[in-house]
Amino acid sequence: MSSPTAVPIPKDSTRRLPRVSKPLKGLEGPLVQAGEMTRLMFQVLWMAVRHPIGYWSEVKDQMFDILKLCWIPMAVSTTAFGLGAPGLQGGNIFNLFGIPERLGSFFVMASVREFAPWVNAMVVAGVVGTAITADLGARRIREEIDAMEVLGVDPIRTLVLPRVIALFIMTGLLDLVAILFGLLGGYIAAVPILGANPAAFADSLFANLSATDVWGSVVKTALFGLIIGVVCCYKGLKASGGPIGVGSAVNQAVVIAFAAIWIFNMVFTTILLGLNPDIQVYK
Questions:
Q1: Local confidence band at 21 (pLDDT 50, 70, 90 cut-offs)
Q2: Which of 231, 237, 245, 261 has a 20 to 30 A CA-CA distance from 270?
Q3: Interval 70-98: pLDDT, tens
Q4: Which residues contact 166 (CB under 8 A, 6 or more apart)?
Q5: In 27-65, which positions are buried (b, 16+ CB within 10 angstroms) versus exposed (e)?
Q6: Which contacts qualify for 267-271: CB closer than 8 Å, 24 or more apart?
Q7: pLDDT of the residue at 26
Q8: Mind giving me the DSSP string for 179-217?
Q9: What Cα–Cα distance (Å) separates residue 242 from each residue in 94, 143, 226?
Q10: Model confidence over 240-260: pLDDT tens digits?
Q11: What is the mean pLDDT of residues 172-185?
Q12: Is the pTM of this model over 0.85?
């Protein structure tokens, strides 16, 4: 009786097995970083609430630097954006129906709820966020942060906490300035260019503007600042590889901050409109 013939096993069969998990391996790094950023955010918030003294002098200095660096590019950006995109483009549509004054109601949605917070956050992330990442990254590669840890100084409380709080506060306050300059761009588009009546433009604006629109815009933008601070501080603390690594960390911080802001903006706006359906009715 002949013995059964053994079935040959392909040599590369064992190599094919791990391919099933390769798509998940590509998500491992981003998910780990997202978890560490979330942990850093809660760590900073817990420090701020548990022992809210000893860091406000540094917060004040950071707030002044944010104001000094951001208010001019933010004012120019929001004015130009309000004049160009929602102002002229949206105003031409209203002008077709002979009601350019109604552009004021459109700017409640365009500038107050969306464009002013969005442009403000982009400017803060691009100007201040990059500076924070570069500063902390340079400290990391020069081993200053390691030296602080050896001496028993907490770098999170000393370096990260004041920057995050300053970004949280100043980004929200700068939103009020961004709203004013965004409305200025809309006024320029409606009144001098499209010939709208200035009083009718103002009546249309304030008839639709509510306190919910204003506080929702400020709160959302302040949370944008919190996201920017946490992301940029995290990437700065994790920088490695010399000056090239710091540059890479700055680039990654800006991209991640932008993406996180856009995702959070979608979620926040959906919740705000769902809880306040009356602000979707235009008068």
A1: low
A2: 231
A3: 999 999 999 999 898 888 888 888 888 88
A4: 59, 62, 63, 66, 229
A5: eeeeeebeeebeebbeebbebbeeeeeebeebbeebbeb
A6: 268/216, 268/220, 268/223, 269/113, 269/114, 269/220
A7: 67
A8: HHHHHHHHHHIIIIIT---HHHHHHHHHHH--HHHHHHH
A9: 55, 11, 27
A10: 888 899 999 999 999 999 999
A11: 93
A12: yes
Measured distance CA(193)–CA(188) in Å, rounded: 7
Q: 145: part of which helix (H) or strand (E)?
A: helix 144-150
Q: What is the mean pLDDT of residues 139-148?
A: 92
Two structure tokens written together for 19? 């391919």
- CA 283 from centre of chain: 31
Per the listing, tokens 């926040």 go with 268
What's the confidence (pLDDT) of residue 92? 87
What is the CA angle 221-223-224, rounded to 5? 60
pLDDT at 17 over 50: no
Residue with tokens 């350019």: 100
- Both tokens of 262, joined, read 């856009």
Distance CA 65, CA 101 (A): 39
CB-based contact 242:141 (threshold 8 Å)? yes
